[in-house]
Amino acid sequence: MSELAITDLHVEIAGKEILKGVNLQLKTGEIHAIMGPNGTGKSTLSEAIMGNPAYKVTQGSVKLDGQELLDLPVDDRARAGLFLAMQYPAEIPGVSNAEFIRGALNARRPEGDPVPAREFLQELYEKMDFLDMKVEMAQRYLNHGFSGGEKKRNEILQMLMIKPKFAILDEIDSGLDIDALKVVSKGVNDLRGPGFGALMITHYQRLLDYVVPDKVHVMMGGRVVAEGGPDLAKRLEKEGYTKLRDELGLDIELTDEDV
To answer: Which residue, 6, 114, 148, 221, is most buried by CB atoms nearer than 10 A?
Structure first.
């Protein structure tokens, strides 16, 4: 069993503090969800964990199995077992999907021991079929010209091939129709087990209907302010964030979208 421990994490961007002491502990075999109002720092948390240089960590630690990740560059964090499915995946003309994924797999293998091409392609096509992706997408440039749903499926395809210890899914459900949401959820559930953990960042209960979390965390004002089981997400969907904020006595302004 592996553990991802986030302790007293403070992060600023462009001189403004966004995270103000986040504490989270995840173990493989668990699916956690983070919900919260707009601007509370959910995506900042994902970017800081993965090492985006635009996000400056001013205090705290992020440890994977006791190893401090904040000292490592992004590629070493990925080799250690982290994976980030981005809210807005980048388009990279000139690099095919298959090339990108095989390169990512080879980067995690012992030097000079690349994954055999036939073995790689066999598994790639199996996973693509599982996600209802057309075979020709393997040779298309990475996310180039993809629809929003195709990009999200492609992120899940990468995750299924790489098999990380922990996946951070940043609003993977954003902009998906119900069919695409079911396929993306199927991919997450397929990895669910003792060797895999996930942190899902979402605004909506609907994702959690298909990937039922073991634990739900609520962020407000740059901190985790409440934790519970799946019923907590259902309550937020029904009541919004205002009632919880007031119960907790928090001085946080919410937008019309969040109340």
So the answer is: 6
